[in-house]
Amino acid sequence: MAVQKSVIKAREALRTQLWDDNPIFRQVLGICSTLAVTNRLLNTALMCAGLIWATTMSSLTVSLLRGYTPQRVRIMVNVLIIAVYVIVVDIVFRAYFYEVHKDIAAYVGLIITNCIVLGRLEAFAGKNPPWASFCDGLGAGLGYSAILLAIAAVREYLGFGTLFGAAIGVWPREWIIMVTPPGAFFVLAIAVWAARSHTLRREAATAPEEKK
Amino acid sequence: MRPNLKSPPYVIAYAGLMAALFTAAIMTLHVATEPVVRRNKELFKQRAYVELFALGDPKTMTPAQVAEVVRKRIVERTEPLVDPQTGEQIQLVEAYGQDGKLVGYAIPIWGVGFWARIDGLLAVSPDLTRTMGVVFLSHSETPGLGGRITEDDFRRQFRQGKDITPSRAGGPFLTISPEKIAAGDPRYARHVDAITGATGTSTALDKFLNERLRRFRRAATAAGMIAPGPAPGAGDPLDRRQ
């Protein structure tokens, strides 16, 4: 019974983070990195991989330690845990993907300050069992990544005429604003608007049924 | 037994233990990967030399082939040049062709970019009048914007033999600007197209590259590599007072 409850909670946490409480278009968190890295799909994909690892592993670790961590030092311990997992990403990239590391090193370090990671630790992992926390962190990372990759695809295509660096011939010219941070504001705002409109429409459609 | 989470000694001990534990884990990983990272850095620099002087295709060469080419054809000059004005030492690197003839020199270039220091190498022809290429060894510029200085589209311009003889009106050696200048324009010889959307990086690069070239020119003249006096440059195409 307890196992079944835990599985349900984990599944619910994953689903909520992926869509209903998506970090980008519902919670509007992690916007700095959304603006900064989304002009290239490759950079975005690598940044997202780093963030998924950091949210998942730090959520799991914080949850495992939750019975032993004093409230007074929990933020310090949480930041320490996040920093450790981010430094692991940095070291692994430097050792095994050196050339990629040279391009995105500046942003890997910034995962430590990404509010999504600390937000999930505070809101969920510190109060919930490990498996559910792991899924919550995974959901937050995947939800963030899905939106970021979509934004990056639009920006790279319109800005450079390429996807993952490969030229796609249909777009005739480079649209400079898409390469620069203001371009991310426009695409992000459109993404948030589209996702929220869809959610509102769905809620409006299901509301009368619930009343019955 | 559950610990008393409010007890001050427990709080201090727990915080200290966590910090020590995680720091030890990171240090272990760092030490374990150190040799790989060092090899990566070395190989990156060796590939940069091969690419800079077109000594082969570093993308298709194995690390052993790259190391062999560098060992045989890249030589660090024994005596560094000294800029008489600032006293700065400039360590030149010489590249030789298969026939043993000097192909060119690599000058270290560095300066503050938009975010932090940029380090690289500029290859110049044996008569010190033309660029042969450029590589950037380290930078912290914005990926996708200033970070594009490492992309071939930007660096290719330096392989086109830009004029680095002193401008007669004391203008810059090179100009990195967003202005579109066609190949037929007299200013083309010293012009490098800036990176779209990365004005900060382009401006910083323009500034420190010219400063490095100025210092190198003075040091090379002091070392007798260049005869003093006006250079055989192509006039002063960048002097806008003309």
Topology:
The complex is a heterodimer of chains A (212) and B (242).
Chain A lengths: L1 H19 L10 H7 L3 H25 L8 H23 L1 H13 L4 H11 L4 H31 L1 E2 L2 E2 L8 H4 L1 H31 L1
Chain B lengths: L7 H45 L10 H11 E3 L4 E2 L6 E2 L2 E4 L5 E11 L4 E8 L6 E8 L13 H8 L15 E3 L13 E3 L5 H24 L20
Parallel strand pairs in B: 8-9
Antiparallel strand pairs in B: 1-4, 2-3, 4-5, 5-6, 6-7
Rg calculated over all Cα atoms of chain A: 19 Å
Q: Main beta sheet of chain B, described? A: 5 strands, antiparallel
Percent helix range of chain B: 25-40%
Biggest interface: chains and residue counts?
A-B, 37 and 33 residues
Terminal CA distance of chain B: 87 Å
Cα shape of chain A: globular
Order of helices and strands of chain B: HHEEEEEEEHEEH
Features of the shown structure:
heterodimer, A: 212 residues, mainly alpha, two-stranded antiparallel sheet, 9 helices, 2% strand, globular, B: 242 residues, alpha+beta, 2 domains, five-stranded antiparallel sheet, two-stranded antiparallel ribbon, 4 helices, 9 strands, 36% helix, 18% strand, elongated, disordered C terminus
